[in-house]
Each structure stands twice: as C-alpha cells, then as structure tokens.
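Hi R.,

Here are the chain sequences for the assembly we discussed:
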Amino acid sequence: MVIQLDSIKSIPYFAGLDQAELESIKKHIFEKKAVRGEILVFEGDPAETLFFVVNGMVKVFKTSADGKEQILQIIRPGDSFNDVPVFTGDVSLASAEAMSDVLLYTVKKNDLAGIIRENLRVSLNVVRILSERVQQLVSLVEDLSFRHVTGRVAKVLLEYAGNGADEKPRLTQQEMAAMIGTAREMVGRSLKTLEEEGTIRMERNRVIITDQETLREVAGIT
Amino acid sequence: MTDMPQIDINKCDGCGLCIGVCGCRVISVVNDKATIIPKDHCNGCRRWCTLCEDICPNKAIYCAFEVVIEQKTDSK
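And here is the predicted structure of the full complex:
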C-alpha cells in the first residue's frame, strides 16, 4: 500500500515540514492495519516502534494484577502512541488495543532517531507533543484524585460529545469505567443520576446532553 | 451507524450467558458463536440495556454509546 504524503503531513510530528522533507521521511514509514480488539502493543515488551493512527481509534491502557483496566489515553487520527518508551529505550509502559478497525503508520526506533537528528522542526514538534502528554496525564491524576465518579462521567461525556462534524469514538460503559478508574456499575449509576437530574437523556445507544451548562458544573469545568 | 451490539466472534466462546439476560430475546448461539437474530416485529435490540455486554466473561460484546449534544431550536 502506498503511503500518502497528505496523511503524513496531517500528523503533528511532521507539521510544518516542506515537501522535500516529507518525501525523505516517507521512506521510513510503513503501514499497518488492525481490526477491533487487536493488541498492538503489549505492556512490558521492548518498544521498537512508534505508531501513528491514520484512521480509527486506539486505546492505551494499563492492566492491574487482578485484571482491572485503566485507560490512559484514547488515540485519535493524527496522534501517536508508544512514544515515551521509544525515546527512553525502555519497555512499553502500557498496552495498546484497536477500538475499531484501524490504519496505522509506523516508524522504527532507529529511523526515528535519524529523522529527529536531521529535522529541527520535528524535534520541536516532539517536545510540544510530549508536553501535551504530560498535561493529559496531570489532568487524569486530578480527575482520579479530586473528582467524584459522577463528575468524571460528566467530563468524559463532554469530552466525547460530537456535533456530527468530526469523528468521535463511541464508548461502551466498560470503556468509560476504564477511563475514569471506576467499575462499570458506577458508570451506569452515574448516567442514571445525570438523567434524573435532567442533564442528559438516554435514548437507546445514544447519550444526549440536554443541559450542557449544568453538566459542566457537575464535571467541575469552569 | 452502530445499531446493534457488536459481537467479536474471535472472543466469543459460545457460553450462551448473554441469551439468558437479553430482554429482547434476540440473541442465539449459532455455530458456537453468539449471534443477534432480529425478530420479524422489531429491529433486534430495542432497549440497549447492555446486560449482554455486562455478563459476557470474554468481553466479546460491545454496546457502544454515541454522545451528542442536543441542538436547541428557537421557537420564535
């Protein structure tokens, strides 16, 4: 399959590069396809590859000894995963699983080092992307430490609410629970509470936010 | 548009626990795999109760929700 230059261009890692620079990077990029449920990265395995999501969604998660899952991040088109262990040379810190059928671009660790050495702009992009990753993780710690479960559910709903214009992942109650560090039953209870309070309405496989302002207050978003 | 619970046949071991909890009675095990067979009078899963997803020991059933913001219409 041919690697599309436009797809590379839309990846934040390679933002701002000219045509010639993108062409030189293209030869280091390979395509990979996966189906929903396929494990792409196993926690603890040597990290040899950086992944970019071109189409679909991927979840990055940790699993406890008793099988409990904590989702660290949902990776959308353009975003990357497995960056940190690739840069540190360590093993993968978390596992990654396709949430839908996905198209990925991959870059080998050694090739990435060469790309960064040759392109200052890529280095600056990487600094910004990893800084944003730190912000996301700080936000997750804040949620788990200070927000009550209903507030966390409200925040997830606001974050994943679509307007029809952009692609948003559909979430199961189990996935919501794994994102906010709670049990599936607690998500179900919180959705019921929010519905009783009139901030959302459940319609079969849709959660409709009917009072966005109050939901933001419940989520603690000012 | 995802209108039915999704069943990952690679994970399903055909245990049939989902059949017992399905309020719409539309799940059957066919060739050792859970399958949704819509009845004539409806479109299959109507309630989206998610009990099948909850009970599945292999996490083979997904009942995903779309989150949307209600568009307010001005009545004036």
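The CA atoms of residues 51 and 81 of chain A lie 5 Å apart. Strands of chain A lie at 29-34, 39-41, 49-55, 58-63, 69-75, 80-81, 95-98, 102-108, 200-203, 206-209.

Let me know if anything looks off.

Best,
T.
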